[in-house]
Specification:
Radius of gyration: 20 Å
Number of helices: 6
CATH topology: Ferritin
CATH architecture: Up-down Bundle
Mean pLDDT: 90
CATH superfamily: TspO/MBR protein
Oligomer: single chain
Largest sheet: none
Strand content: under 5%
CATH class: Mainly Alpha
Number of strands: 0
Helix content: over 70%
Order of helices and strands: HHHHHH
Structural class: mainly alpha
Number of domains: 1
């Protein structure tokens, strides 16, 4: 059987990958945020002093939704690049950096580990940047699609750095004046 596919068959193959990867990445990202109580409305997060560069709350949901969709498309491009040199490495890097991304919200919003979230964000920037370079070597378009994600990660890490600086007691902060003391 021949290995030659028509242009329309190749497009359909890419679309099948995209129909799988885009919703998967988006749903995993949304689930990570929702399950960890991320964003405004989280009493612990609301009690933190925010830096002046902190955007409004809606910005994060919108930005992450767009970034997860774009990441899913970039991943589909790489998955579609059959027999490309470095494809297996690119896939592994993407999965590892996505896993770190999904762990970030529970570390920050649920566990209240600001410093650990900062270190995780720095590791994520390095892995995402490396993934972007490897993607670009396989398909330039996939690498370019990852650039806004890396830029947003740098901005997010800056926000976490500032939150850590402004809230040295963030990990022990109990919102709403909660206490572990029992009143008699």
């Amino acid at each position: 059987m021949g290995e030659i596919a028509s242009p329309s068959q190749l497009r359909m193959s890419f679309f099948r990958w995209a129909l799988f990867t885009v919703p998967l990445v988006l749903l995993l990202g949304i689930a990570s945020g929702r399950l960890s109580g991320s964003g405004y409305g989280n009493p612990w997060f609301d009690a933190l002093v925010k830096p002046g560069i902190m955007p409004p709350g809606w910005t994060f949901g919108f930005a992450w939704a767009v970034l997860y969709v774009v990441m899913g498309v970039a991943f589909a491009i790489i998955l579609h690049a059959r027999r490309a040199r470095g494809r297996a490495t690119a896939i592994a890097l993407f999965i590892v950096q996505l896993a770190l991304n999904l762990v970030w919200s529970p570390v920050f919003f649920a566990a209240h580990r600001v410093e650990a979230a900062l270190w995780l964000a720095l590791a994520l920037i390095i892995l995402a940047a490396h993934t972007t370079v490897v993607f670009a070597r396989i398909r330039l378009g996939a690498g370019l699609l990852m650039l806004p994600y890396v830029a947003w990660l740098v901005f997010a890490a800056l926000l976490v750095f500032e939150i850590n600086r402004l809230n040295p007691d963030a990990e022990t902060l109990a919102p709403g004046g909660a206490s572990t003391q029992i009143a008699l």
